[in-house]
Prior knowledge:
Strand order of the largest sheet of chain B: 1-4-3-2
Distance between the termini of chain B: 29 Å
CATH topology of the largest domain in chain A: Arc Repressor Mutant, subunit A
Strand content of chain B: 35-45%
CATH architecture of the largest domain in chain A: Orthogonal Bundle
Number of strands of chain B: 8
Strand content of chain A: under 5%
Radius of gyration of chain B: 15 Å
Helix content of chain B: 25-40%
Oligomer: heterodimer
Amino acid sequence: xxxxxLLVRMCRARAALLDLDADVTVASLAQASRLSRSQFIxxxxxxxxxxxxxxxxxxRLERAKWLLATxxxxxxxxxxxxxxxxxxxxxxxxxxxxxxxxAQFKARFxxxxxxxxxxxxxxxxxxxxxxxxxxxxxxxxAEPDEPLESAS
Amino acid sequence: MLRIKLYSIFVDDQAKALRxxxxxxxxxxxxxxxxxxxxxxxxxxxxxGGDTELSLEPNVNPAARAYQQALLAQGIxxxxxxxxxxxxxxxxxxxxxxxxxxxxxxxxxxxxxxxVDTCGNLIQLYQRQRS
Lengths: 152, 131
């Protein structure tokens, strides 16, 4: 059972991992949660579905998407800004998770105005529904695993 | 008449959320429409054929994330699902390594339990007392 106290400590650990300005290690987070390293990783994963390392990677990619879409920084600058030291591994990870390279992602946003850019990187329920509505018969229920056309 | 057919829940990762909500919780995928930027209009519904849809909505908006994180740290479940046999669901989900913050507990006319959904939310399960 996850006690309220442990839940709060896990939430603090997750917030620190999502905050790229916070310089944290798994060892320091485990210590702050008063768990061994292996216990910490196991409990964290059960609560959040990711390892602490995976949470940090996701935060880096989200931040990179935001910077690519809304600033004029270069891909190399953004790679460094989100704490990745290798441009090659950053680009291949980005491509793996987003289906396109950082440069391709950035290029798609260059013709949008600022508010359109923000809405595309941080969509909400209504914008997702609107986007889905404009490209398919929304009232239809998709068959599970039925291939669907891409939005692009 | 106003009907409730669609409800949304913030998730930190849509692919991870879909796996948990289908493979672990047992909902069926309903709508899955890519809308660009790696995001999807993604909904699930109950396996018994109910037509109320739950949208798994990305929490990338900082306001959504702050709201979700604060509720989680305070132990507040915003979303509740009804079950027929709370004890059986509790045991099934425990076997799947789901972390509960409250085991099955009688609360007046219902019994409830609360778990973490791996996407940043607490979810309450409740069973009505049989009459």
